[in-house]
Amino acid sequence: MRHQPRSRLRLPVVDFLDTSVFVEILDVPHMNAHRADVLAEMDTRLKAKVRFVLPTATVVETGNHVFQIKEGTARRKCAGVFMNMLRKTALGEAPWVLHERTWDGPFLTALCDGGTTGMDLAAHAVCQQLGTGDLSIVAERDLYASRAQAEVRIWTLEATMGTWAELP
């Protein structure tokens, strides 16, 4: 009698959206050179049942990029799109969710420790690796992964951030 191989359980996949991806989705001027590719990839990932999480730092950093758009009409238009995306997120109508957690002492400690990067915040500053926003995305992803039965990654277009996109 032959034994059937056990099927390997595949964990759900959760991608934290990095700012480099979110500005493409929002079509932020001068930060949208890969928009068509990002939208196509998002569609592919959604069809593959990948879930998306919008981290706090991505919202803050993206807002800063929108507010720094030089031309006033473009800035207003992009700010309106950004605001509508945030409202849809709050209402559960966006293709991503918030990781609803508080910035507390343990989270700030994890941020200072550099999450799972193996380098603390000061070492990242010295080496000019990840900034505080990117480190907070890593720490937030790590926190989420510690509580979820899922493969949790960071979707980024940045090479440096990509180094830490997968959990070790």
Describe the overall structure.
The structure is a single chain. The protein is of the alpha/beta class and 168 residues long. It has one domain (13-159): Rossmann fold (3-Layer(aba) Sandwich), CATH 3.40.50. The chain has helices spanning 19-26, 35-47, 56-67, 72-90, 105-113, 121-127, 132-147, 159-162, and strands at 13-17, 51-54, 96-98, 151-155. It has a 4-stranded parallel β-sheet with strand order 3-2-1-4. Helix 5 (105-113) crosses helix 7. The longest helix has 19 residues, at 72-90. The chain is globular, with a radius of gyration of 18 Å. The model has no long low-confidence stretch (mean pLDDT 92).
Summarize the topology.
Blueprint lengths: L12 E5 L1 H8 L8 H13 L3 E4 L1 H12 L4 H19 L5 E3 L6 H9 L7 H7 L4 H16 L3 E5 L3 H4 L6
Parallel strand pairs: 1-2, 1-4, 2-3
Helix pairs in contact: 3-4, 3-7, 5-7
